[in-house]
Specification:
Order of helices and strands of chain B: HEHHEEEEHHHEE
Oligomer: heterodimer
CATH architecture of chain B: 2-Layer Sandwich
Largest sheet of chain B: 5 strands, antiparallel
Distance between the termini of chain B: 56 Å
Radius of gyration of chain B: 19 Å
Number of helices of chain B: 6
Structural class of chain A: alpha/beta
Structural class of chain B: alpha+beta
Helix content of chain B: 40-55%
Distance between the termini of chain A: 31 Å
CATH class of chain B: Alpha Beta
Number of helices of chain A: 3
Strand order of the largest sheet of chain B: 1-4-5-7-6
CATH superfamily of chain B: Histidine kinase-like ATPase, C-terminal domain
Strand content of chain A: 25-35%
Largest interface: A-B, 23 and 28 residues
Radius of gyration of chain A: 14 Å
CATH topology of chain B: Heat Shock Protein 90
Helix content of chain A: 25-40%
Strand content of chain B: 15-25%
Chain lengths: 127, 197
């Protein structure tokens, strides 16, 4: 299936969804004017990927900022991943936060509480 | 040196100088009145980031930035059109960021329909009376059960602003006429507070 790549802007994140190279990542800032419109290709891609996923999906979130409307879309993405896991596929969420950003680390723990998926929490020093 | 202003304009100069003095004495970091478009929201939050980066208040900066994004997006989505000399002003409002030794305060003001006053007032009052665990639970429930509205909001902004500020939300309403009211809202953030209340 064709890879999806959305280049980052000052209000929207980099999105890489690439089955062939086993890369699944959303990183950067997320406060687009229209979250539904921005994330629609992402959820559509994942809905298609669900039907025939790779042997092991590690989905990386490396966000430095997201607004509340985006938080809802992130949950939608996690719920699609959860459906894959429920169907017996191996899925892991890698949640990356800046060491200094406790709010981002806390957000990762909240999402972990909300969906039934294994989470790896990582911190990094610099952007 | 050329005198640019004639004597006739001294009232205007005094007016500008008074505003300038007022803003600097009160330590107002940012003030804006006008239509809060998405671009304006980005510009204002960017300005604030720039000011605060110089001061190395990383944690406080993140919170001030977030509260500004959410408050400005509220105005962008919910401020009601009102007429002034025949001109409609959708998404228009006033934003003020002030600081003192211990706090940053983000204040917004905008016109809403009077019929919405009670609902907003009850909701904000309820948020003020909730403890951190209750707020976390409400946020997660709303994220799970809520839907993105036609206006693009998820109904999460106020909850998260309350969650991320250790202080109660300040709010008031001034009735403008029968149908419209002015909604004024202030979120207070302690400087370099710990990340959880």
């Amino acid at each position: 299936m064709e890879a999806l790549r959305i280049e980052p802007t000052d209000d929207s994140p980099l999105v890489v969804l690439d089955r062939e190279n086993n890369l699944f990542e959303i990183s950067g800032k997320s406060l687009p004017e229209n979250v539904v419109q921005f994330y629609r290709p992402v959820t559509e891609w994942l809905t298609a990927y669900q039907k025939d996923p790779g042997p092991e999906t590690v989905f990386t979130f490396k966000l430095i900022y997201f607004n509340t409307a985006s938080s809802k879309m992130i949950l939608d993405i996690l719920m699609l991943l959860e459906e894959m896991a429920e169907a017996g596929h191996e899925v892991t969420v890698r949640w990356m936060s800046l060491t200094s950003d406790e709010d981002m680390q806390e957000a990762g723990k909240e999402y972990e509480e909300m969906v039934d998926l294994p989470f790896e929490h990582h911190t990094y020093e610099f952007e | 040196m050329t005198m640019t202003y004639s004597g006739n304009n001294s009232g205007f100069i005094n007016y500008i100088y008074d505003r300038y003095r007022d803003l600097t004495i009160r330590d107002i970091c940012l003030v804006f009145e006008g239509r809060i478009t998405h671009q304006v929201m980005k510009a204002l939050t960017g300005l604030m980031e720039e000011q605060m980066e110089e001061m190395k208040e990383k944690r406080t900066l993140r919170r001030v930035y977030h509260v500004m994004v959410e408050s400005l997006q509220n105005i962008n989505r919910h401020a009601e059109t009102f007429e002034n000399d025949g001109y409609p002003y959708p998404g228009r409002g006033v934003v003020l960021v002030t600081r003192d030794e211990g706090h940053y305060r983000i204040t917004t003001g905008n016109i809403i329909e009077t019929s919405n006053v009670e609902e907003i007032s009850l909701f904000l009052g309820r948020l003020n009376n909730m403890d951190p665990a209750g707020l976390d639970e409400l946020y997660m429930r709303q994220m799970r059960d809520g839907v993105i509205s036609a206006k693009g909001g998820a109904g999460l902004g106020f909850i998260d602003v309350r969650r991320k500020t250790a202080h109660p939300l300040d709010y008031d309403f001034i009735q403008v006429d029968k149908d419209t009211s002015f909604f004024i809202f202030t979120a207070t953030i302690s400087r370099q507070e710990s990340w959880k209340h």
